[in-house]
Amino acid sequence: QLQLVESGGGLVQPGGSLRLSCAASGFGSDYYAIGWFRQAPGKGREGVACISTSGGSTGYADSVKGRFTISRDNAKNTVYLQMISLKSEDTAVYYCAAGGSPYCSGYVPRDIGSWGQGTQVIVSS
C-alpha cells in the first residue's frame, strides 16, 4: 500500500553536502516513522537515522551523528536526509523505509513494512 521513492543521490567530493529525499504515497503515509539505511559495496545494510511521524523525535547512528540531519515535511509526505562533511566511507546506496508505528527504536523504524528502491551516493575526489 505504502510506496517510497528516494531521490537526490549523486557524486560529491569529500567534505561536500547532499540532500536526499524520500517521498511517501499511499494510504496512511502520514502515520509512519521513516528511517534511512545504507549499503556500501560488499557490506551489509545498516541503519543511519530515523524520524517519528510528528518529527519530534530523531535518532542517528554514531557514524553519522553530527553530520547528517533527518527531517520531514508532512504536508509534502517527504522525509529528508541532509548530509554534510561527507566522507568516502559514506559511499553507499541509501534506502528509506517505513515502520509499522509512528515511533523509532533508536535510529531505526519499528517493524519495517516498506522500502524504497534506493539512491546511489558516491563520495569521491
What do you see in this structure?
It is a single chain. It contains no helices and 13 strands. It is an all-beta fold and 125 residues long. The model has no long low-confidence stretch (mean pLDDT 95).
Order of helices and strands: EEEEEEEEEEEEE
Q: How many angstroms does the end-to-end distance come to?
A: 40 Å
Shape: globular
Computed over alpha carbons, the radius of gyration is 13 Å
Low-confidence stretches: none
Number of strands: 13
Estimated share of beta-strand residues: over 45%
Tell me the major beta sheet.
7 strands, mixed
- Kindly state the percentage of residues in helix: under 10%
Q: What value does the average pLDDT take?
A: 95
Helical run tally? 0
Label the structural class. mainly beta
